[in-house]
Amino acid sequence: MRDKINIFYIILGIGIGIIVTSLIFTLKPKIKYVDYSDDEIIKKAKELGMVSVKEKIELNEEKDKRETDEKEDTKEEIILFRVENDDTLTSVADRLLKKGLIANKEDFIQFAKYKEADKKLRTGDYKLEKNSSYNEIIKILIKSE
Looking at the record's lineage, which domain of life comes first (predicted)? Predict the structure, then answer.
């Protein structure tokens, strides 16, 4: 009987301790809020290896320019590609990836959305070069004939 009373008081003490601690931290939290400027946030993000969409697109465009210069020297393989009436940007990107026309599906989708090409895809048959840049592929797929 005495053991039951001791257990009761132990549980009661723990419960009261939890409640008191909760009240103390609710009424007077020890949280340090720091206001960061946009430049500081960007600096911290870069330290963590993050890049903005614009930087990534600029890097892709630079890469596209280099690839275009390299392509002028070599003859590229041409692949026939069809866009159906009910195709979405995701389904087009899947098929482009399977045919080896793009290296990364997510990057292509993000780039196409940035260029606002996701709603401008035209149905039809297209001839695409094997190592075309994302920009070149999008220009071809949204061109109206």
Answer: Bacteria
